[in-house]
């Protein structure tokens, strides 16, 4: 059964963060809060964990995103032009997934043959602190409930009940949201909103 860890977004406990980073470095998969719905996460450095996460979400297209601690980390794993940098600076951290051209540092396994990767810099100190300590992005995919039972994507105790046998840690960071991120394509000359969600693009 997964470890259940309470962490407060306002002031994440350093010891608990270190424990979670240790799990991620050991091929672990976690469930963690974002500024939107709860999500599965694992280290981009761990092919085994990426495979586990893809199976959990049945992502046959491997359409996974990465969580970065800031724009500087995102710039290591994607190709960011000046105008994209300015847009990211205005809108992060925030409830957005930005599609950017991946750099060679993103393993093919996480891309599934694509050259574009979704990038998240969420407005929540828990994932930002985890990724900063990990010093590597987390591969991420939202927890979705096929039966549309909202509580299973927002209540961390019910997430533990449902996924406790298949993940290593469930983080309780309070109730989650049911509203997805705003999906913005930055791979052309101008931003294109593919899905309007929680974030309002500036």
Q: What is the residue-mean pLDDT, rounded to a whole number?
A: 91
Order of helices and strands: EHEEHEHHEHEHEHHEEE
Number of helix segments?
Answer: 8
Estimate the strand proportion: 15-25%
Q: State Rg.
A: 16 Å
General form: globular
Q: Uncertain runs with pLDDT below 50, 5 residues or more?
A: none
Spatial strand order of the main sheet: 1-8-2-3-7-4-6-5-9-10
Cα distance, first to last residue?
Answer: 42 Å
Largest sheet: 10 strands, mixed
Percent of residues in helices comes to 25-40%
What's the total count of β strands? Answer: 10
What class, by secondary structure content? alpha/beta
Quick take:
The chain has 202 residues and is an alpha/beta fold. The chain contains 8 helices and 10 strands. The protein has a 10-stranded mixed sheet, sandwiched between helices.
Describe this entry's structure for a reader.
It contains 8 helices and 10 strands. With 202 residues, it is of the alpha/beta class. Strands 1-8-2-3-7-4-6-5-9-10 form a 10-stranded mixed β-sheet, sandwiched between helices. The model has no long low-confidence stretch (mean pLDDT 91).
